[in-house]
Amino acid sequence: MTAKLLEGKIFAAAIKAEAKKQVESLQQEFKVTPGLAVIIVGENPASKVYVANKHRSCEELGIYSEVIEMPIDSTKAMLLAQIDELNHNCKIHGILVQLPLPPHIHTDEAEILDFIDPDKDVDGFHPINVGKLATGQEHLVPCTPMGCIKMLELAGIEIAGKNAVIIGRSNIVGKPMFHLLLARDATVTVCHSRTKNLAAITKQADILVAAVGRPHFVTADMVKPGAVVIDVGINRIAPKKLVGDVDFEAVKSVAGAITPVPGGVGLLTIAILMHNTVKAARLQLS
Ligand code: GUN
Question: Which stretches make up the Tetrahydrofolate dehydrogenase/cyclohydrolase catalytic domain (predicted)?
């Protein structure tokens, strides 16, 4: 069997086209242009690329975009002051602090993210939004896992009643993915670095989500024939070579459908960020 290729660009284009329509209707009906502010601290090269891509997507869709570059030695207080300004800035409907933060403020990450107005929290990381997701009141939801869900929905892949297995329990992907799949009536198992007999569990998965951050971690013997395999990993194994968490070449002959890396769910993350920014602007209309 050769798996169906789930290409991110097709789904991302559909989500962005819908967001663009929403931008136009917000402008026509309410004279409001959705605005996104992205704060980047320091010079992390990968982060700079991600932030530039976000800015470009905003421009494509007619979303107002501000990139705030703060020096590497910025203090927690400086970041909180910047967020405070954006929380009160009526041109800005979405605020994103690009992670990772530099080491000297890394331990302050939770306090910094919690300072973002929950209605402007387009990353969906604020405890209020996490709590809403966990209690079935989806509000602003983390972009990468929501991108995986939208991709399944747009590809016509049924979620209800399926066995879904997630490898990875991060706050950004694994945990929100669990809630999103559970809310859509999948039977969900979350595996992690201490899971025993991992392959025996992953082989039960109709939908397998890999979010471990280890190149080629998921091998063909871990996959049920015909399964849908979603690869959230982005691992740089050489200066110009990115690979996922899934051994794509081997797994594609076992799976029923598979996302490539690059060119898979990574493209959906930004599309959902645009969607969340428009949604946040709508929430703030009153
Ligand atoms: N760095 C890598 N992924 C993300 C993300 O989803 N949000 C933020 N803010 N930073 C990131």
Answer: 6-123
